[in-house]
Amino acid sequence: MIKNVAVIGAGTMGHGIAEVVAIAGYSVYLSDVSQEILNNALEKIRWSLGKLYEKGQLKESDKTIIDRIRTTVGITNELKEVDFVIEAVPEKLDLKRQIFSRLEEIVADTTILSTNTSSLPITEIASAVRRQERVVGTHFFNPPVIMQLVEVIRGNRTSDNTLNTAYEFIKTLNKKPILVHKDVPGFVVNRVLLRIITNACMLVEKNIADYRTVDAVARYKLGLPMGIFELVDYTGVDVNYYVSSAMIERGFKAYQCKILEEMTKRGELGVKSGKGFYTYPSNRYVKVNLSPDLAEKLNPLYLIAPAIKEANWMVEEGIASKEDIDLGVKLGLNFPKGIFDYEREFGKENVTRALEELKRISGEEEYL
Ligand SMILES: NC(=O)c1ccc[n+]([C@@H]2O[C@H](COP(=O)([O-])OP(=O)(O)OC[C@H]3O[C@@H](n4cnc5c(N)ncnc54)[C@H](O)[C@@H]3O)[C@@H](O)[C@H]2O)c1
């Protein structure tokens, strides 16, 4: 039974995860490298809990909840009683491995060690410890307090018991877990997303469509909350460049987008730098103005068919179920419907035909 939880790293993700875990009634140890960072994190949690309380979304007072969070500098003996650890330190393999190895010296043999990594293989992080069967991925989305989805990922050595315990634990946080049965680059949600982004980039680089047309089709024909390039601007051109490159390096066969690399080098990083594919005065996101007429200029299947193929591949490979993939894109990417809903609506034959046409006009064979 899980009672005490540790969250390692109190940054963007860690402080939000600690808040979610404390709201669910667990005692939390929040660890980071300095008391100043921890105080800052507590301040943000206090503010967020205050807002939730005002809106009537908490069953207890914000003070009762925050009192369940204790802070600790470094990985100390105070963590020896914890039953479940969620690591959320920066995305560096060596650092994560060091932390897991240090944790193993302190916690009980039965404690589950989970990582919030978005792109590193769970298996490589796990190989830093002796009991690798207790290591699992728990991939929260940003911001953890708002986003419902958590991908629960099985590493090559994760035991059934660890996977199931992590899955059930995430449910107790009032989150919606989906199961990722194989440790593939990008897990489920980022594979679908990056399949769409890299393909959209290919359409632009090969002059099949311009980026405004792509975005208009995404918004008006597929009903996505943002255009594809608008989303890239929103999440960071550089972030998308690094994530896609890291996934490709680790075996995700996809179009290597040159525009993202060039824009990253020029410092055109999207909303945060004021300029990406679109411009953002005062570095603030404003909805991009796109004429619906543009959406008539490109077959929407040219955008979504590669993602439908990816989703089918994941089902065939036993990576995730259709239901979980659809839940993942709806909750993780705010898609209005699941990938398999698009497949049903467009029809399998039309999807196949669109992929064939795309292969022919782009000359790209490997992943279409
Ligand atoms: N930011 C996102 O949108 C997002 C979404 C999903 C997953 N993730 C993943 O979550 C993890 C954390 O990302 P983030 O954006 O919160 O990073 P961040 O840089 O905001 O926070 C990381 C925190 O870890 C702390 N830290 C560094 N070394 C430490 C150590 N030895 N012990 C304890 N704490 C240490 C840092 O001081 C920092 O406060 C990464 O693996 C990232 O890939 C991030």
Write out key terms for the chains shown:
Rossmann fold; N-(1-d-carboxylethyl)-l-norvaline Dehydrogenase, domain 2; 2 domains; eight-stranded mixed sheet; 15 helices; globular; binds nicotinamide-adenine-dinucleotide; 3HC_DH_C; NAD+ binding; oxidoreductase; oxidoreductase activity, acting on the CH-OH group of donors, NAD or NADP as acceptor; 6-PGluconate_DH-like_C_sf
Structure description:
The protein is of the alpha/beta class and 368 residues long. It has two domains: 4-180, 3-Layer(aba) Sandwich (Rossmann fold), CATH 3.40.50; 189-362, N-(1-d-carboxylethyl)-l-norvaline Dehydrogenase, domain 2 (Orthogonal Bundle), CATH 1.10.1040. 48% of the residues lie in helices and 11% in strands. The chain contains 15 helices and eight strands. It has helices spanning 12-23, 35-54, 62-66, 93-106, 122-126, 160-172, 189-205, 211-221, 228-235, 237-249, 258-266, 301-316, 322-333, 339-346, 348-362; strands at residues 4-8, 27-32, 69-73, 84-87, 112-115, 135-140, 149-154, 176-180. An eight-stranded mixed beta sheet has the order 3-2-1-4-5-6-7-8, with helices on both faces. Helix 4 links the parallel strand 4 and strand 5 (112-115). Helix 7 (189-205) packs antiparallel against helix 12 (301-316), helix 10 crosses helix 11 (258-266) and helix 12 crosses helix 15. The N and C termini lie far apart (46 Å). Bound molecules: nicotinamide-adenine-dinucleotide.
Q: CATH first level of the largest domain: which class?
A: Alpha Beta
User: H/E order of the elements?
Assistant: EHEHHEEHEHEEHEHHHHHHHHH
The N- and C-terminal alpha carbons lie at a distance of: 46 Å
Give the biggest beta sheet.
Answer: 8 strands, mixed
Number of domains: 2
Compute the average pLDDT. Answer: 97
Q: Runs with pLDDT <50, length 5+? A: none
Could you say which structural class the secondary elements and strand pairing correspond to?
alpha/beta
Q: What Rg, in angstroms, do the CA atoms define?
A: 21 Å
What ligands are attached or bound here?
A: nicotinamide-adenine-dinucleotide
Number of strand elements: 8
The helicity comes to: 40-55%
Strand sequence of the main sheet, in spatial order?
3-2-1-4-5-6-7-8
**Which CATH-level-2 architecture of the largest domain?**
3-Layer(aba) Sandwich
Name of the CATH superfamily of the largest domain: NAD(P)-binding Rossmann-like Domain
